[in-house]
Amino acid sequence: MARISGDGAADMVDHAVAMAFGQSRSSNYVRIQANGSSLGRCGANVDTDPSPSNVKMLIGIGDEMLKQKNVESVLFGGKRIVEQSNFEKLDWFAGELVLEHQRRSCRIAPTVAFKQATPKPT
What we know:
By secondary structure, the chain is mostly helical.
C-alpha cells in the first residue's frame, strides 16, 4: 500500500513539473528517482541515522541509482526509459548549468531588470 501511494505521489510530481516546464522540461529539469529495488533494505530511520554503517549503505544506494537507466515521465503517456544512465544525465545537466552560468556572467545587461516603483501622487 505504501509503495502504491509513493508511486502515485511521484507520478503527481512528474505531471506537475511536466505542465510547469512545458516543452522545455527535457532541457530544464532532471529528475533522478530510485526504482523500488534499491530502497528495499532501508530502515525507518534511514534519513536520521548518522552511523557509519548507515552512511555506507546510503552511499551504496546512491551509487546504484547513478548506474540505473534514467526514466523520463511523459505527460499523460507514462514513463520512458532513456539510453543514458542517471550519472550521464546528471553529468550532462551539470555541464548545461556551467554553460548557462558562463553565458550569464558575460552579459552586459543584467539577467533580470527591476522596474522602479513610481511614487503615488498625494
